[in-house]
Write a structure and sequence with these properties.
- The protein is built from six helices and no strands.
- It has a single domain, classed as MazG-like (Helix Hairpins).
- By secondary structure, the protein is mostly helical.
């Protein structure tokens, strides 16, 4: 189920984030609360790029907008990886477990093509 290298790549990113924070003496500021708040700020900045777009426009971003969205996605990922590190959460393992749970909650043969929540079918 897991792609080769994915876990080690996440670990490498985690380690580089640790070193980045250590070099700047920022670990003191990287509490779970602060990181969760920063994650939400970056998520809001990502959302801002889509706020007034139609669904079609949001699927066909101009090169400049896509570059900006890419940076916001990177910010979200970096804070998420850092927060998971501070809490001792293996992100890849947590994501795979969540996908298994979602597969049980949303069986493909029942929900295919439907946006209903699991308690609505």
């Amino acid at each position: 189920m897991q792609e080769a290298g994915t876990s080690s790549e996440l670990q490498m990113l985690r380690d580089r984030l640790r070193a980045f924070a250590d070099e700047r003496d920022w670990d003191q500021f990287h509490t779970p609360k602060n990181l969760a708040m920063a994650l939400m700020v970056e998520t809001a900045e990502l959302l801002e790029h889509f706020q007034w777009l139609t669904p079609a426009q949001s699927s066909d971003l101009k090169r400049e907008s896509l570059a900006e969205v890419s940076e916001e996605l990177a910010d979200v990922l970096l804070y998420l990886v850092r927060l998971a590190d501070k809490l001792g959460v293996d992100l890849l393992e947590a994501a795979l477990l969540k996908m298994e749970k979602n597969a049980r909650k949303y069986p493909a043969d029942i929900v295919r093509g439907s946006a209903k929540k699991y308690n609505e079918y």
